[in-house]
Every structure is written in C-alpha cells, then in structure tokens.
Design brief:
CATH superfamily of the largest domain: Type I PLP-dependent aspartate aminotransferase-like (Major domain)
Number of helices: 15
Number of domains: 2
Radius of gyration: 22 Å
Largest sheet: 7 strands, mixed
Distance between the termini: 54 Å
CATH class of the largest domain: Alpha Beta
Strand content: 5-15%
Number of strands: 12
CATH architecture of the largest domain: 3-Layer(aba) Sandwich
Order of helices and strands: HHEHHEHEHEHEHEEEHHHEHHEEEHH
Helix content: 25-40%
Bound molecules: pyridoxal-5'-phosphate
Shape: globular
CATH topology of the largest domain: Aspartate Aminotransferase, domain 2
C-alpha cells in the first residue's frame, strides 16, 4: 500500500476527535431509530436563523452584483470599509482606540487563529492554554510546528489558574491562548483574573528576545447571561490581540467571517500586522469572503436573540439538576461541561488522561468514566461528547444550540443514564 497522505495527517485521522466520533455514532443511531428520536448535543452549530439584516443585505447585494470585480479578489486584510466599521465597533467593545489598520478580516475565528500562529510560531514553540479547551486549538498550533500546552483550570469552578500558567511558562512559550466565554465550560473570566494574567505575562516577558503574546479567542463574547461582564483584553497588555467572529452572533458560521484586532499599544505593530496580512494571503485564504464582509458591515451590532439561548440553558440546567448531575452553571456560550455522575474521584485522578481507572487508586476501580457515561447516554438516544475530548476526563460536554423541545425531550434519558451510572459506580454522590 502506498502512503498517500503524510504521517501526521494519517495519525490525526486515526485518532478522530471525540466530537467526530460521537457525531458519527449519532448518524448511525439516527438511521436506526429516526432523527426525531435522537437528542444530539454534540455539535456547536448554531441553529437560529441569521439576523434579519443579513437577508435584507443579501437581497440588496443581489441587485448590485452585475458589475466588473464586484466579486473579484479583494485586499488581503479585508475591505477598507469593513475594517473601518469593525475598528469603530471593536474600539467601543474593547475600550481602546482602534484604527482600521489594527483590524484584519479573517475566515472566521478559526482562520484568524491559524493566521496568528503562522505569523508568530517557530517549530517547537509552545502555546499555553487553560484546560479543558476547544480541541481544534491543538491542530491550529500544530499546523505550524508548535506545541499546545494545556494547563488545568481551577477545580471545581474552571476559573483561570494564573499560578499554574506561570509554572508552565518556558523559554519556548510564545503565546497564551484564552477563550472566554469558554467552550466547553461556559465560564467567563473575570477582570481581576485577566489583569493577573496580563501582569504575569508582563513580568515573564521582561528581557526576552521575543514577546509572549496573549491571544483572546472570543467568538462567544456577545453570549453572556445574567448581566455577566466579559472584560476586554486589549487594554490590559500590549502584546495582546482579540480574535472573534460572526459565526454565532449573527448565525453566520458557514460564511466564514471573523477578525483579529491588535492592541494599539503593541510595539512594532506595523511589522506584526504586515505578518498577519501576509499569512492571511499565503495560507490560501487570500481574503475573507466578500459577501460575508458586506453582510457584517451592514449587520454589525445586531445579534441573534440571547434570550433564546438563556432559556435553553435554564431548561438544560433544570434537567441536569433533576437527574442529580453536577455542573458549573454556564455564564456564557452555549455549552455545559458537567461531571460524570457516579462515584466521585479526586480531581487529580480525573485529569490523568490515558490512565485506566484501575490505576487511579483503590477506590476508583468501579467508577463509570466519561466514555462509558456517554455510552450510557447514547443507549438512551442522548448524544454527548466525553470530557477527555477537551483534555479533561471525568466530565462530558453538551451543546444547547438546538430547539428547547429537544432539550426537554432528553430529560428522561439523562435521568436513566445517571441512575445507571450511580448503580454501576460505587458510593454515588452528587451535590
Ligand atoms: C472556542 C472556539 N473558537 C473558535 C471557533 C471557530 O469559530 P469560527 O466559526 O469563527 O471559525 C469555535 C467554533 O465552534 C469555538 O468554539
């Protein structure tokens, strides 16, 4: 057999992500039982229609498109008018003055992160990120020879552990990557946590030949509940950048529009921005989709109805509580990251990826782990992703970007699976 793909890509394919595996298991279950019988909480694909401005603008654009170059190649950094509008909008959101030159339009937040890591990483460089984390980060960093270094967040709240981040910094650290509101935990980092992180990076960066960047991935910035503040990152640290998108806020995920906004106090920002713009081009993105840029320009400031997501969050919280499943109530985004019910083991045990339960101390032997619990849920036609897919076994992730009726329909399944987990495990405990 010829080796038709690189070893690295072959390995990635072999170790399909847990989200992918559960997604595929879901397809099978849906074929067998009917799609309406399966409650699928695996994928974060926003189901709400795009905001009305999007449809209106598309109809208007359709009438003006019959002109030369209306859909031609566009500037690599984005349309001048889109960058200008974004700069005005983001200046307010981030509470710093921003010019169009400090904002680049990208193919989603994912494209933005790839552009950043292509621009700053040498092979072997390290990027620290709090764990659990969005699993794609490992690939985005690995694409350019970098190494993602996950650092456990504080238990049980998933707050930022700045001391642990400090301990993880090495000569090879080139960036710290944070995500707030967080996928998968729903946690929103507080102003004082972010200030402590910025102070740490300022200290740690002193005397270095290369800066340590702070990359704030914030596609869920608009989605915070109960008046929780999502503090801006750009005023805190000169080597910082905010990466965002309109995939969730305008329900525009397929149109691939996002941005990078660079701190106005970044030293040598001109070279840095030139690097970003070059990478946007040479990674093959060339420019962010032109229709998407026009849509964003027109719809900037609008968002889908956050109240709908909040109602879904509250419905899911009630169902999990009733089933005796422990969780930190999400303050933002559209994910829950609850604890696997059954026997409670120590957080340290839960963090040891790849160590079989039988090696985690005498008490842990009969515990239902996150993969087994997701199987128990699947037996009830409820699909979730094991926490180890996000770097933290012992938990599981649920999305709630689907109709509330589906969430309510899953109540019995959660209850039955949790009851079974408690029967299978020993010494069941829940809050
Ligand atoms: C934390 C996080 N970052 C980035 C992305 C990528 O989003 P985009 O569609 O903006 O590329 C996602 C998508 O789910 C995400 O959850």
């Amino acid at each position: 057999m010829m080796q038709v793909i690189s070893t690295n890509i072959g390995n990635i394919l072999q170790n399909a992500s847990w989200i992918r595996r559960m997604f595929e298991a879901g397809i099978e279950l849906k074929q067998k039982h009917g799609a309406d019988k399966v409650c699928d909480f695996t994928l974060g694909n926003p189901d709400l229609p795009p905001v009305p401005e999007v449809g209106r603008t598309l109809r208007r654009l359709a009438d003006t498109v019959d002109q030369p170059l209306s859909l031609g190649y566009m500037p690599n950094a984005g349309l001048a008018s889109t960058r200008q509008r974004l700069a005005e909008y983001l200046a307010e959101e981030q509470q710093v003055p921003l010019t169009a030159q400090q904002v680049i339009v990208t193919c989603g937040a994912a494209g933005g992160l790839n552009v950043i890591f292509r621009t700053i990483l040498e092979p072997g460089d390290e990027v620290i990120c709090p764990s659990p984390y969005f699993v794609e980060y490992g690939f985005y960093v690995g694409n350019y020879g970098g190494k993602l270094v996950p650092v456990p967040s504080k238990a049980p709240t998933f707050a930022l552990d700045v001391k642990a981040i400090e301990a993880a910094i090495t000569d090879k650290t080139r960036a710290v990557l944070i995500d707030s509101p967080n996928n998968p935990t729903g946690v929103v980092y507080k102003r004082d946590e972010l200030a402590a992180l910025a102070a740490l990076l300022t200290r740690a960066g002193k005397g270095r030949e290369k800066p340590i960047y702070l990359v704030s991935d914030e596609p869920y910035r608009f989605l915070a509940y109960d008046g929780v503040e999502v503090p801006p990152i750009l005023p805190l640290y000169p080597f910082s950048m905010a990466v965002g998108s309109f995939s969730k806020s305008l329900s525009l995920a397929g149109e691939r529009i996002g941005y990078i906004a660079v701190s106005p106090s970044m030293p040598q920002a001109d070279s840095f921005l030139a690097g970003l713009i070059l990478c946007n081009r040479i990674l093959g993105y060339v420019n962010a989709p032109v229709i998407g840029q026009r849509l964003v320009e027109a719809a900037l400031g609008a968002t889908v109805d956050v109240g709908i997501y909040k109602r879904r969050r509250d419905a899911m919280a009630g169902i999990l509580r009733d089933a005796g499943i422990e969780f930190v109530l999400p303050q933002g985004a559209f994910y829950f990251f609850p604890k696997v019910p059954g026997k409670v083991r120590s957080p340290d045990d839960a963090r040891v990826e790849g160590v079989p339960p039988s090696n985690r101390g005498p008490d842990a032997r009969d515990t239902v782990d996150d993969v087994q619990f997701c199987q128990l849920l699947a037996d009830e036609l409820v699909l979730a992703v094991p926490g180890r897919g996000f770097g933290l076994p012992g938990y599981f992730r649920l999305t709630y970007c689907m109709d509330e009726a589906i969430i309510r329909r899953a109540a019995q399944g959660f209850q039955k699976a949790a009851d079974r987990a408690r029967t299978l495990g020993v010494g069941s405990q829940t809050r």
